[in-house]
Amino acid sequence: MKQDKTLIRTIADFPKPGIQFKDITPLLKNPQGIKDCIELMLPDAHTAVDCVVGIESRGFIMGPLLAQALNCAFVPIRKKGKLPHQTLEQSYDLEYGSATIEIHLDSIKPGDCVLLHDDVLATGGTAAAAIKLIEALGGKVVLCSFIIELVGLKGRDLIQDYPIKFAYQF
Ligand code: AMP
Description:
The protein is an alpha/beta fold. The chain is built from 4 helices and 9 strands; from the N terminus they run E-E-H-H-E-H-E-E-E-E-H-E-E. The strands form 2 sheets. Strands 5-6-4-3-7-8-9 form a 7-stranded mixed beta sheet, with helices on both faces.
């Protein structure tokens, strides 16, 4: 299993001054890099998973690949106003202002074991809001898998009750 950090490109001051943006597009051009990344984010063999929940928008790239590898469903969490059927919504604080995400009411059944996936764990606010949605529908979060954990932002502290896997740490 290989972690090739050159596949993650850091773009300074994007999308605004002070942000060190982690660009995964070099990783996406590398089929072996994608395979290795998926392996590193998968749960242990004994962990049952009924569905992978991916967060818009970069959680939609590896999320379905994780679901394929686990032979289970993929469920999208989207920004407010994008999902067409009945939804449950959750708002959370951003550095400036707030955001709202939604999930379809019929996407998860009570008792379902869920793998939550996003590209980057930064402050953890997005993942924590997604967990609230999953649990409100009766789902059980068995693993949170990220391509990248930004250790210095301490996102882990917000989701400390849940196991975490990542392919890269910065
Ligand atoms: P947070 O809620 O702070 O953990 O932020 C996580 C979300 O913001 C993820 O969906 C990421 O796509 C995005 N994000 C936050 N920080 C970065 C970063 N430095 N580089 C790329 N994406 C980021």
